[in-house]
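Narrative of accomplishments. A recurring question from our advisory board has been how the design workflow behaves on a single, concrete structure rather than in aggregate. To address it, we present the structure tokens for one chain from the evaluation set, followed by the sequence designed for it. No filtering or post-editing was applied between the two.
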């Protein structure tokens, strides 16, 4: 039996000039179909490593030559009903976090800078 998983992949930007005072990161969430957690982790790792690279030398970040690097899988979540194909409205993943005030909710929703603590 195959199950559906949402895998949270962390990718970061590495500058080619080796002057690295910050590390831009992206959390990409991809769907994976696998028989079990172990196979899902193997498949998502292989998938993420295909995203590494510099687009044949054309990738830049903030005007600087750079490359995407795979940092790891932050979490692997079994979908709401892992044996059924995800459909409209299926919860495929979630994140648990904390903020320090009700005002921070609006900041988070608006995409403003806000301090959060990831719990899961």
């Amino acid at each position: 039996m195959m199950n559906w998983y949402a895998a949270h992949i962390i990718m970061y930007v590495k500058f080619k000039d080796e002057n690295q005072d910050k590390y831009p990161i992206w959390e990409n969430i991809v769907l994976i179909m696998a028989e079990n957690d172990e196979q899902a982790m193997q498949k998502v790792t292989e998938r993420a490593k295909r995203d590494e690279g510099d687009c044949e030398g054309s990738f830049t970040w903030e005007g600087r030559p750079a490359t995407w690097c795979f940092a790891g899988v932050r979490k692997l979540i079994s979908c709401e009903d892992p044996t059924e194909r995800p459909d409209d409205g299926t919860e495929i993943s979630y994140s648990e976090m904390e903020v320090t005030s009700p005002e921070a909710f609006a900041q988070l929703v608006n995409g403003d800078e806000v301090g959060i603590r990831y719990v899961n």
